[in-house]
Amino acid sequence: MSTAGKVIKCKAAVLWEFNKPFSIEEVEVAPPKEHEVRIKIMASGICRSDDHVITGALVEPLPIILGHEAAGVVESVGQEVTSVKPGDKVVPLFLPQCGECKSCLNTKGNLCIKTDFGLKRGLMADGTTRFTCKGKAIHHFLGTSTFTEYTVVHESAVAKIDSTAPLEKVCLIGCGFSTGYGAALQTAKVEPGSTCAVFGLGGVGLSVVMGCKAAGAARIIAVDINKDKFAKAKELGATDCINPKDFNKPIHEVVMEMTGGGVDYSFEVIGRTDTMTAALACCHNNYGVSVIVGVPPAAQKITFDPMLLFTGRSWKGSVFGGWKSKDAVPKLVADFMNKKFVLDPLITHTLPWTKINEGFDLLRTGKSIRSVLTF
User: Fold this and answer.
1) Catalytic position from the list 104, 112, 171, 175
2) Any catalytic annotation for residue 252?
3) DSSP state of 236
4) What is the pLDDT of residues 68-101, one digit of tens each?
5) Per the residue annotation, which of 44, 68, 241, 325 is the catalytic one?
């Protein structure tokens, strides 16, 4: 029996209140409208950005269905959809690619105007939602909302991938892996023989380490206050691992001394203003490049000495690793299938999706790198 054109009743993890656990609820998912795609979610990773919404550090309207790093199968499509069809394996894209806005048309850009990133609307392009629960409208998250058995996304926010790809692994290409790997390869453009420092060794930070290694960096200094992450960082390419708690001087001074004047490239992959400034200060004062990869906390400002930039450093931001999403994701999945990089070391836990609250506990206690929820 076909579900196309009909409302689907299914289960989803709904966040009703800040700092409260998710509630597994029955929701109604409306059929896709014009240029929209309804997806059966098969796997979804737990990313720190989802947790930032729960704590209020990333401000979003409630109630909401979170989740933005996933893979699934197209269930049905709305009118005018041409790039995917029912049965296709896909990755939803929290950073869409409309192909028409200034960023999409510029070779250097990837921040498509169609993204909900930074807008905090939590609605589809027409200003409405496709989710209802107990008679209430439920907000979307970043145009993806993947902590649900079915979701609806705009056609510009979905990429068709290799039909043989393991969805419980390649879901990471929907956010964490691509964000870190691309920050090194696309945004910083790390060069062979260079030195790098990576602040924060979660799933994204470790992906930065992998990107630096793939680019041929000679030295990769990994920085984290959780020493339990050092073994994995070394396995993935870090040459040095340092814990700021082990020193009685600022960490940027430690890195400066270790490298005789600073690294060529540094990456902040935590989302803290103090580490953003430390990462900037630890790169070479004249030609160093520092990249902000971690989502900055809401309502916080950075104060720093402008001399840090005056001498020649570059400070950059990177969203989704600088990749043009709809073009890059199928290629990254193909690279994974061709064994150009590994994803298994990043996935420390695989849980049935109804154990989502346990998955977030693992993240908060530092026991997981990436937990993948399977549906």
Assistant:
1) 175
2) no
3) T
4) 999 999 999 999 999 999 999 999 999 999 999 9
5) 68
Q: Return the C-alpha torsion angle 116, 122, 127, 133, nearest 10.
A: 150
pLDDT single digits (tens) 178-207: 999 999 999 999 999 999 999 999 999 999
Q: Are 223 and 281 in contact (CB under 8 A)?
A: no
How many Cα neighbours within 13 Å face the side chain of 186?
Answer: 23
Question: Would residue 154 show up in a list of annotated catalytic residues for this protein?
Answer: no
Give bridge partners of residue 268 from the DSSP assignment. 199, 292
Catalytic: which of 52, 139, 140, 154? 52
Catalytically annotated residue among 49, 266, 290, 318:
49
**282 part of the active site:** no
More confident residue, 303 or 11: 11
Determine whether 61 is exposed, middle or buried from the number of CB atoms within 10 Å of its CB (0-12, 13-18, 19+): middle
Establish whether 52 is a catalytic residue: yes
Helix extents (H) in the chain: 48-55, 102-105, 167-170, 176-182, 203-214, 230-235, 251-259, 273-281, 307-310, 325-337, 356-364
Q: What is the pLDDT of residues 239-298, one digit of tens each?
A: 999 999 999 999 999 999 999 999 999 999 999 999 999 999 999 999 999 999 988 877
Beta strands of the chain (E only): which ranges? 8-14, 23-29, 36-45, 70-77, 89-92, 131-133, 136-138, 150-154, 158-160, 195-199, 219-223, 240-242, 265-268, 289-292, 314-317, 347-352, 370-374
In one letter, which amino acid is 3?
Answer: T
Mean pLDDT of 116-144: 89
For the record, the structure tokens of 277 come out as 């400034």
Please state, in angstroms and rounded to a whole number, the distance separating the CA atoms of residues 208 and 321. 9
**Strand pairing category for 289-292 and 314-317:** parallel
Active site residue 47: yes
Q: Map tokens 């060069």 to a residue.
A: 191
Q: What is the mean pLDDT of the chain?
A: 95
